[in-house]
Structures are given as structure tokens and as C-alpha cells.
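Subject: for your reference before the review

Hello V.,

The reviewers asked for a structural picture of the protein, and I figured it would be easier to keep everything in one thread rather than splitting it across files. Below is the amino acid sequence we used in the manuscript, unchanged from the supplementary table.
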Amino acid sequence: MAKEAGLGDRLFIHTYNLSGDVGSVQTLGLNYAEQVVTGIDKSSTERLLLLGDGEIGFNNYFNPEDGAGVEGLHEVLNTLPATDRIASYFRGIVLGTMTASLVGKQVNYGLARGADGALIGAAISVKANGTELEYGEAGTPGPRTDVAATDGTGFDGGLRRRGASNIVSSSIANPTNILTAGPHGLATGDWVTIAGHVGMIPEVNGDHEVTRVDDYNFTVAVNVTTAGTGGTAQPIVAIVSSSVADPSVITTETAHGFVTGDWVVIAGHVGSTPDINKAYIVTYVGPTSFTIPEDVTVGGTGGTVTRTSTVLGLSAYLHLLAFAGTDVTVKLQHSADNADTDAYVDITDGDFAEAAAVTSERIDTGPRLIRRWIRVVTTTVAGFNPATFAVAVCRK
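And here is what came back from the structure prediction:
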């Protein structure tokens, strides 16, 4: 994973793409209030986390344009509306790139005229109201324009979701020590996939065998000279065998932790007929066994199995920026493998409300299974041409 600059970013407020009038984004803040509860028997501070909060803050240029459906930032924000507004930042215009979104109140607006004649905006802040700032992934490559009902391109949510441990840091050492935010549950000899870890030299993202240190620490065989932070460590479960049966029973070396209905990807399994290295929905049999819906006539051995689904659902943000026609519905669909063997289907409660004009909306599916790949689609009853919109998807 390479470091990135902030070139080509986008900022959406409600139904407006204000990117051209924004000079800098100063704050994409997610924070929690805290209560200090340090006992007299402690040698360091103890804290409890309280209410969550969020903020998107930015500087602007003065643009008073107002007409023909084209509004400058001044006309959009100077009235300080008392109602909630949805704000989303897109780190570039690539599908699946990082986003930060919230439902909030715009709490200020101002301009400043410099001695040199420059007229610029003061720092504007949109502060969360009822939900925290949520980091997510771009379901559209910035603004997307559809001229009819369209199945969008899917983006890969990755293998790092459910069952993963959040990483705090890697150490400058050989082997490097990985510190996790909570108990990792790993044993010496387990394998993990590290993803999203940034700042370290050399790269440690990838598959590693671990050596357990304690509940919160393990080492991997990488000589790290510059420490990194963040990311996740997703356990990889080793496969012992697949059985000759329909459905085939998969036996694992260690407890797999799957439940019936989970989606997994099998990789590196050899000798089976047919080849079972692909995505499956599993049925729980026991702590070290599960079945896949496959008629295996020759059993195989080895390989790994990794869970790809999540069970906590998602939230998503829609900015419908331009619209002509009668109606459009923007919805989310998911697949285990980008429709290779598992066709895209609607995510339950993953539909935004049918729209007949520009609008913005946040949805939350509540706890439910979400597969690895997600795409944004548009449907219509009586037609539209065009609809321009941006969607951010935030997995729980």
C-alpha cells in the first residue's frame, strides 16, 4: 500500500458538489468524549469512552453564483440552515477509495477580505448530529451520471472484515511486534492477513505466520526499520481436507469460527475434483468442520479458508446532485466474488428512497450479513435522463 496525496478530491454537501469552491479540507474528525476514572491504586490514567462525535471542516473561496441550477458555495452555505445536512468527502474519484461522511449541522459561515484584496471564506464546520463521522469507501467514482437504469461496477471490500483484530502499531525490530487494540486470539503458528497498515518500512501487508507474545501482541518475520500504524490482522484458517460427498465437508486444522450463512473464499486447496478454490456460503458442522454446496468426487488437501462476509451491516450516504425525469431509485447490491459464481443481489434495507428531484439521504441496514463485493445500481419505474449522484458506503 502506497502513501497518497489529496489531489483530485471531492466534497459534497447535501445536493451540491462544492469541490471547486473549497480550498482545503482541514478536519475529518471522529472523536469521543472521555471520563477519567483513575483509581488511587493505578500508576497511569484510566479512561472511559463516552459519546461519539464528528466534524468535517473546510476553507472556501467566495463564489456568489446563483442561477440555472448552478450555485456557488456562498449561495449554498451563507444561510446557515437549521436543518441537518449530509456532508461527504471523497479521497479522489476512484471506485472504492476512502470516504468520510456525516449527518450534521453547519454551525458557521464567514468571509475575510485580506489587505492584498483576497476574499476568502473562514473555516466552515459541519458537526455531526445524532451519528458519528463514518469512514467508508466510494460506491461511485466521485459523481456518477446514469442516463437510464444501470448496474454499476462492483468494488472489493477485501478479506479483512469480520474476525479481524485492529492493529495499533508495528515495532522497529526483527521480527516486528504487532500490537492490537483488543485480544487477538492467535496462537503461535497461526496465519494472518495484515491489511491497511501504513507508514512502515518495509511493507508488512500480506500473509504471515505469527508467534504469539501475549493477548495483545504477536510477531511476524519482517525486519521493520520504520514503524507503522493502523490496519487489521485477519486470521487465516488452514484446511486439512475436503471429503467425497455432496455437500463436501471441509475439515480445518483449528477452530474456524464460522456460522451457517457465512461467505468464505477457499484458496490453495489441491487434489479435489472439481476444483473448490472459490467463494462459498457455508453450513456449520462443528468447530473444525463445515460444508460447502459442492459435489466432490475426489477429495483434496491443504489450502486456506478466509471469511469474506460481515454481519454488522452497513450505512450509506447518497448525494443526488442532478436529476431530470420521473423517478430514480439508487440501491446497493452485493456478491461474494463479483458475480463470478455468486450473482449480485439486493442488500436488504440497502435501498435509498425513490427520488423525483435532487436529494440527499443516509441509510442504515442494521445488523445483517454483507458480502465481500458491493455495487451501486439505479432502477426506475417511469424513466429518467440523467441522474448524477455520489454514494459512500460504510461497513460496520
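For the response letter, the relevant points are probably these. The chain has a mean pLDDT of 90. Residues 114 and 120 are 8 Å apart (CA to CA).

Happy to draft the paragraph if you're swamped.

O.
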